[in-house]
Design a protein that fits this description.
The mean pLDDT is 95. The strands form two sheets. Strands 1-2-3-4-5-6-7 form a seven-stranded antiparallel β-sheet. The protein is α+β, with helices and mostly antiparallel strands. It comes from Sphingobacterium puteale. This is DUF2625 domain-containing protein.
Length: 221
């Protein structure tokens, strides 16, 4: 297990690359403030160097909100997104500290969609980011790695990715959520009845409840 000094690289940080992407961002974003102690703890648990964008985001931020909080990138945890990346993964991708799971959850959205890096449990694309969609109940590869995923959230066409599922006044509704909440839909989005999204009811639920319910229904972890 690497020490904090081995993981933190003050002269060659991946954060400078993320900042470059932010300068040309086409999507609204908010970098959440970090708690230094919590950031150190999450980085130690993750065992990822800050030379990488992932390690830098964990250690430099409490998380990043994209498009008014529609999409949430996990960092070390903050008031608005009170989940550190490793804290959130425990009981989901791994059970005991130090275990290496078959995937790592890295981000999620208000629909109850989950983004994860595949380490073998989600498909053949090792190291690729996969998305678990509520309308399919399946993990699907985005055919990119973590860095390209972060670049896409900042500069990509995320509105097209989600255009089927955005309702009138969605931005106002999302503002009322905290980072530990998502919308639950009825009829469920994977049913035929939900094809007409205008007729689907929604309510706010804890994200932990949504995750476990959805994965149990889908037959996964």
């Amino acid at each position: 297990m690497k020490s904090l000094n081995e993981l933190i690289n003050p002269t060659d940080s991946g954060w400078s690359l993320v900042e470059e992407w932010m300068k040309g961002a086409s999507n609204p974003y908010e970098v959440l403030p970090r708690n230094p102690k919590r950031a150190d703890e999450e980085l130690l648990r993750a065992q990822i160097t800050t030379k990488s964008p992932m390690g830098a985001i964990i250690h430099q931020t409490g998380g990043i909100l994209i498009d008014g909080g529609w999409l949430r990138i996990l960092g070390s945890g903050s008031v608005k997104l009170n989940r550190g990346i490793m804290e959130w993964n425990k009981g989901k991708s791994f059970d005991k500290e130090g275990e290496k799971g078959g995937f790592l959850l890295i981000a999620d959205d208000v629909l109850g969609g989950y983004f994860a890096i595949n380490a073998g449990a989600l498909g053949e694309g090792i190291g690729q980011v996969y998305y678990f969609a509520q309308d399919s109940l399946q993990w699907e590869s985005l055919e990119c790695g973590y860095s390209d995923f972060i670049y896409w959230t900042l500069r990509g066409d995320i509105r097209q990715f989600y255009e089927t599922f955005k309702w009138k006044n969605w931005a106002d509704d999302v503002q009322k959520l905290n980072g530990n909440q998502v919308f639950s839909f009825y009829p469920f989005l994977w049913t035929e009845q939900a094809r007409d999204f205008r007729k689907v009811d929604r309510k706010v639920v804890p994200i932990d409840e949504n995750y476990h319910f959805t994965m149990e229904f889908a037959g996964g972890r």
